[in-house]
Amino acid sequence: MHRFLSISIALVTIAGCNGTMGGTCTSSSECRAGEACLDGVCRGRGDGGLADASDPRALASVRVEPSTVTLTSIDGAPASQAFRLIATRHDGTEHDATAMAYWSTGSMRLGAIDSTGTFTASGVAGGVVTVNARLASGSDVLSANATIDVVVERTVFGAGVDPATTPGRFGAPVAGDPSAASILYPLEGAVMPQNVSPPDVQWQPVGAAGDVFRIRLTKPRATITAYVAHIGDPGFRHAWLVDRDAWRAIAESDPDDDVRIEIDRLESATSRVVAGAAPRTMRFARGSLFGRVYFWDLNAGRTESIDPVSAARAVVVPAPAPAPNGGRCIACHTVSRDGRWLWGVREADNAGMQFDLTTPLGADPAPTRNTPVAAPITMGTYDPTGSMLIGSAGWSGPMVIVDAASGTSVGATGLPTAGTSFPSWSPGEGDRIAFMGEVAVAPDSHPIDGDVYVMPRTSASPLAFGAPTKIHEGSTLSGAPEGGTADSHPVWSPDAQMLVFQHGPRTFSFVPGTHDVPPGALYRIAPDGTNLVRLDTLNGGPTGTSAYFPTFAPYVTDERESARYYWVAFYSRRDYGNAIAGTQGRGLRQLWVAAIDASAPAGSDPSFVPYWLPGQSTAVHNIAAYWAPEPCRVTGSSCATSAECCSETCEEGPDGAPVCVPPPETECRRGGMTCGSDEDCCDGSTCSGNVCIEPPV
């Protein structure tokens, strides 16, 4: 918008004819063609108005004063700086052209500049801003820049902390003390999406009641400082859940720089300041993740969901229809790729049940898409259209296709008749199936051996599949740190260019009827069987063996230097934080998320250090994270109310039936809001996974 405005101003300056030679003016638009408004007077060639080197009064250059400046916003308060544009003639004389300049900045993210040349930082985030001033001079436009370092500083005081005196008590920290606080979370080198919910910074419990901990998160142009007091409560968590405004400030500042996290302790008994142990560093990806994560709370035997942005957790189906014996536990769930349908199996009687996630499910019993029927599959995935599922009967049975509308099996030729498990339907065209083949099971019926296969779909109608191809043999990794010969849980990346699978002696992190914890690790491989790589960074290092059941988020984020990241959710028994605020020492299964560089060179580990999915309960076991877009109806879908539509607009369609339509142009959907098509989003944003994604800044 501003770009076009600047062009129009220049044209008016050149072609205007409202003023007279020597007449007073406030802008060049009031002057005649060939004139410019200088020193409040319309001037032409020979009168200092044109950039003509032969005329000593003509303009030679302009500059912005000050040329560099640092603006510091304290606790979100705006900070301002007035700039001047100084014009210099060929004879060396100068005049103030501030009022006649057009002022702009390259981005409105950090602040805005008004028509008088005053820039005001928003206080939301820090970074570098370039201010540009342009001045029309006859047929030319002269331009100059200034640079602003916008710095944000925020301070948060916890309960029991005196804001007036506590900061001043933190003098020079004593380094190397054995009682130093050691940071346990975030993990060193973790990569988080730009919009992830704030983490719980946790440290190893140290010190005594009355001590005050200073937690600092810093980037070159952002500093967040929190003071947290150990007030004697036995439940003191030795953790600080980062304030949301502070987290946004650190996330959006200096996007290409790491965050440094430090914790110092003011010892109440001695007034010493004990420097923390080694600081932690982490960084933010350029991209953001949306949608919902659907997972199984093992302790409660139910499916729950988490919004990865707000960390809000909810029970998906509070009261599914009970089995004849009263059982309501729904397990082995999966979610359609558009986020609308959830499939699960009622454990009490093995009945398959489907739920429409766009409708209220709070009734008892919750409404289902179809009458619960004996489920022909144990684990399954939807095809890209949400009209079919593919699964295996039991843990090693024949492969079966299920009609999603009825829940009953349908005919298809070419499906393997035995020894399969965990089939995964490819996204996009849905033209391939990845699965665990040649399955061998233990006496408890769970797989202990198997390989990764890919099978083509040769016909959509009638449904037919071609001969499967083995792309990896599990026994070849028997010497890996996790051991075992079972390749399992193969899953497709959102663009179907990569598969990730689990390897180990078992397919889950337990052995039924025992306390054994079989190891597991994740690998990536190309669909043609090339480029096998152990995801060591995701797994917790070259010897890491606690990563299970991978699933991809439906988003690929655009990153710096043309990189693209996939995001993989998985569960792990690794420690999360300390024993009070986290899960240290309890071996609880918790959900983690890691980025994978889609553009990493072949043979290299493309994974990054994971982060714990915010919003989980640290008192229960959580597994099987299926990530789906917002469960809303896309543009063109039938609807009854606007609330059902991603665009939030339900109107009469061409045939008279109500359908979801794009919103009015003045009500376009901004970044992070739901959408049913690109038409729903504001200029520059695209609809990906039913969410408007703004282009990279």
Question: What can you tell me about this protein's structure?
Answer:
The chain has 697 residues and is mainly beta. It has 4 helices and 51 strands. Strands 4, 8, 11, 12, 14, 16, 17, 19, 20 and 21 form a 10-stranded mixed β-sheet that branches. Strands 33, 34, 35, 36, 37, 38, 39, 40 and 41 form a 9-stranded mixed β-sheet that branches. The longest helix has 14 residues, at 2-15. The protein is globular. Mean pLDDT is 90; it is low at 1-22 and 45-51.
Structural class: mainly beta
Share in β-strands: 35-45%
Secondary structure: helix percent: under 10%
- Residue-averaged pLDDT, rounded? 90
Number of helices: 4
Number of strands: 51
Amino- and carboxy-terminal Cα gap? 16 Å
Shape: globular
Q: Which segments are poorly predicted (pLDDT under 50) over 5 or more consecutive residues? A: 1-22, 45-51
Largest sheet report: 10 strands, mixed
Q: Over the alpha carbons, how many angstroms does the gyration radius reach?
A: 31 Å
What's this, in brief?
This protein has 697 residues and is mainly β.
Give the topology, please.
Layout: H1 2-15, E1 36-38, E2 41-43, E3 59-65, E4 68-74, E5 79-82, E6 84-89, E7 94-96, E8 102-105, E9 111-113, E10 118-121, E11 127-137, E12 140-157, H2 166-169, E13 183-185, E14 191-192, E15 200-203, E16 212-219, E17 222-229, E18 239-241, H3 244-252, E19 259-266, E20 273-274, E21 280-284, E22 292-297, E23 302-306, E24 313-315, E25 330-335, E26 341-346, E27 351-356, E28 373-374, E29 379-382, E30 388-392, E31 399-403, E32 409-410, E33 421-425, E34 432-441, E35 447-460, E36 463-465, E37 469-472, E38 485-492, E39 499-504, E40 521-525, E41 533-534, H4 536-539, E42 548-552, E43 557-558, E44 564-572, E45 590-597, E46 611-612, E47 622-628, E48 650-652, E49 658-660, E50 686-688, E51 691-693
Parallel strand pairs: 4-12, 12-17, 14-21, 35-38
Antiparallel strand pairs: 1-2, 3-6, 5-10, 6-7, 8-11, 9-10, 11-12, 13-15, 15-18, 16-17, 16-19, 19-20, 19-21, 22-23, 22-47, 23-24, 25-26, 26-27, 27-28, 29-30, 30-31, 31-32, 33-34, 34-35, 35-36, 35-37, 38-39, 39-40, 40-41, 42-44, 43-44, 44-45, 45-46, 48-49, 50-51
